[in-house]
Amino acid sequence: MEPNDSKSAAAFASVKPWIRADLVKLGHRYESGEATVIRRDGGRENHFGCKCLDPAAGIAYFYFHESAGLAPGELIRWRGHEDWFVLGASCIQGAVRCDIRAALPIDADLNDLLMSAGLEQAANYLRRAESRIMEGTQEAFAECKTHCRSALQSAVESVTGVSGFKNGISSLRSCLQIGSTDTDLIRAVETTVGKLLDELSKSGPHPPLPLLPPTVWGLEMTRATLRFIAATRKK
User: CA-CA distance, 220 to 232, in Å (whole number)?
Assistant: First the structure.
């Protein structure tokens, strides 16, 4: 499939000749097509590129125009159904080469992962938190932390079926796919989730309204915790 979106096609077409010549010289196979790039913050963009294969090594990789701006940790959804995790990206003559591996369930877009795990309410709270932090005021940061706390509470209560966050934490071990003998991991998960909730629950004049750095930390920790819970929830 040749690119047909005018802007993306033009950018890709400007680097495709040398990419194709290089691939032919290397004896690597390739196919051109459209991909959806899923950013780490959940944003999505469509770009045209080449999926390439080194047949001798059995290694797949991608080429896009450098304007695609891919980075490690992002996902490439090729032709609507193949998901690939970006391990590394390097710019070469106006193009970006992406080294990849097949995506694992835990690599999925966080919103998709939460929805597939039946944690729709937690996903909604998380979207509100992400929206509020973008406003850049102390009041918005405070509300971001509140939504993060609500997302964690909702996820734990949904997974465990236990009302009350503190009680729910102690029930997590039986509701997640964690080895029953891996006591260090179980203890770490329970401690981390509990401490994170405590931090997100701080309010009032001591401490004052949150600033951006601790709010970003709270949001990123909430994302990581929700990803772990959703990916390891027992079916």
Answer: 18
Residues in the chain: 235
Nearest to 77 by CA among 98, 59, 94, 53: 98
Six token digits for residue 8: 């993306």
Residue 48 φ/ψ, nearest 5 degrees: -100, 145
Rounded-to-integer distance, Cα 159 and Cα 175, Å: 7
> Taking a C-beta distance cutoff of 8 angstroms, is the pair 85, 102 a contact?
yes
Place of tokens 């045209």: 48
CA distances from 58 to 52, 55, 61, 92, 150 (A): 10, 5, 10, 22, 45
Is 129:148 a contact under the CB 8 Å cutoff? yes
Residues 52-82: tens digit of each pLDDT = 999 999 999 999 999 999 999 999 999 888 8
Which domains are delineated in the chain? 6-103 (2.40.10), 110-232 (1.20.120)
CA distance 103 to 43: 17
Burial of 67 (0-12, 13-18, 19+ CB in 10 A): middle
> Is the per-residue pLDDT at 4 higher than 70?
no
- Which of helix, strand or coil describes residue 93? coil
- What is the token pair recorded at 163? 């009302």
Whether 193 has a pLDDT exceeding 90, the answer reads no
